[in-house]
Amino acid sequence: MNKYLITAAFTALSFPSFTATAQDAACDSACLADIARDYMAETMRDNPSLQAAREFAFDVVPRDFSMLPWGERVRFTENNVAMMIGEGYWGAARGELTELFVLGDETTGNVLWYGITEEHEQAAYYGMRLKVEDRKITEVETYFGREGTPDLFANTGGYRLDPMFSETIPVDQRRTRERMTAIVNGYLSSKVRDDGRTLVNFTDDCARITNGVNVTHGDYWAADIAQGCRQQLEEGIYKPVERIRSRRFPVINEETGVIVALTLEDHAVRYVDYESTSGENLKVDVEYPNTRGMLELFKIVDGEIARIEGVSVFLPYFIQDLWQ
Amino acid sequence: MLKNHKNIAGLLLLAAPLAVQAQAPGYDSAVIMPSCDYDCLIETTTNYIEALENRDVNSARLSPDVIFIENSVVMPVGNDGLWGTISNVRDGEMMVADVETGNTAWFGIVEEHGNPAYLAMRLKVEDRLITEIETVVNRLPDMPKPFGDPDAVSHDPEFSRILPVEERRSRARLVTVADGYFNTVELNDGEVFTLFTDDCARLENGISTTSAPPNGGGGNSASIAQGCENQFRLGIYHINKRIRERRYPIIDVERGVVVASGFFDHANMFDRYSLTDGREMTTVLKWPNSISLLEAFKIRDGKISRIEAVFTYVPYFMPSPFAVPNVEFQTR
């Protein structure tokens, strides 16, 4: 009962208005962010249909999505599978939303919503890209870092995105969109069949966090071998990464140096044992072929990667990309 | 004279489409002469498995246009997926073949870098060459699912037993019975849409999920109720929102075996439900997921007597490249 009340209260507070500026053609970054927030609030909005689904264990219930500003033709994927709005997370969303970061890119019309959501009160890391055209949603691409899969997962309770992602950087330390894209591409290419040579620069304290797990520092196995973004690549830890394909960079902000990358990372696992560049004997974390669907936020300062945080989803090996 | 020629040409034009209409829909010829008989299909399947075990794709009898999928993903054949990891094929496989459709199935255990995995496979053979390879590979570690002891598992010999003529059923009826099974699983609420023998048993990923667990332990559906029909009467499998993209590519009338493929969608719009006897159940996973499977049914005298399945998790609602989507069905 309490949960119903909490959800209802959340709903009432989180519906500013979808149509306040609907007549304006352009949608700036604030407008994009509003639409992303409205979308997320709608996924969690309680209603009699969802209550009935839970109370009577029905799996097929009508739901009204008309409050959101939909384009004429909408594409929706969840963990790289195309489906109808209302399916997947839309049916299981119950609990609270924790917004960690929202970033709109008016150049591309894309907006990122990054945070933690809940399905039947079980928390998951969540990253979403919306494409907005004429103030209407035309594309929805979502990724979930859920507990209980072979992928990384840390308790969401202590997770907060590093504040540096919201900080603007001095003009002389900024880079163009094209250069930021090249830097992230260089990072991804360094990771593929990692042989110890890095094609990009990192700040000394660069860290990477995936599904809440700090993989470059602390007690994660890779951090035991080498600490830091550059140090791990120089050690050749990521040698088993067969390829990183379907690279897309839909949201970029030069003022904050933030760029969002969407990728599919293939682990062919043709071998399970390998050697690092310094001669350490290493083993792959999962001993069968798999692909990781990644939504990652990069912070780039003065041409160097300062931080990487995001969501990773464990997917069938070589899964087809639906967006390119 | 010229006028007569025109009339003949007109008659020929009319005759051409009529000849096409004389063809049974969906068939190229009114007589099907299989180029690969039962033994040939089994031998082709064995040859493929040997090529896979040896990681020697050139020795498999593949069509130049062969399509290979592993866990619902299309990939090049020969070096990716299981082809890139396999280290052994264990003895003790089960095979099924359908001369009419040219499809075969193989159920067994393989090893990848020494780690056992359950493999179910369908091959399509045309003109003695393999044109389609569809595989489900069930591996660990993964999300919670059955994974039987690979050293202890065996296939029920019932699947290979030839039925007396009076216990056989037509292809259409065999499919109806198997489809009724999926209709029963879908939204399972106690209603049963197919027939089971009293001794019906099911093996899933090497674990019997319908008979008493070893040592009396729980952990699967058999600890709640035993027997195929009893479990469905209780509504244990209520979490299956739909059984999607059902196909029945392999039917063996003599043995009464149907091999089906499809997806079980667990939408998880609810995480609690009641059995028909009032007992409360909670779902293990709280978020949407699907399982992809190949499932063999032994149907004796019109009743399902044995079921063996290999399945693995795939992202929720993931489709098969081989399935023709039925939009209305899929989006309800």
Structure overview:
The complex is a heterodimer of chains A (324) and B (332). Chain A has 324 residues and is α+β, with helices and mostly antiparallel strands. Chain A has helices at 2-13, 29-44, 48-56, 89-92, 177-191, 221-225, 229-234, and strands at 70-78, 81-82, 98-105, 110-119, 122-133, 136-145, 201-210, 213-214, 243-253, 258-267, 273-275, 281-283, 290-301, 304-316. Chain A has a six-stranded mixed beta sheet with strand order 2-1-6-5-4-3, covered by helices on one side. A six-stranded mixed beta sheet of chain A has the order 8-7-14-13-10-9, with helices on one face. A two-stranded antiparallel ribbon of chain A has the order 11-12. The N and C termini of chain A lie far apart (44 Å). In chain B, the strands form three sheets. In chain B, strands 1, 2, 3, 4, 5, 6 and 7 form a seven-stranded mixed beta sheet that branches. At the A-B interface, helix 3, strand 2, helix 4 and strand 14 of A face strand 2, helix 3 and strand 12 of B.
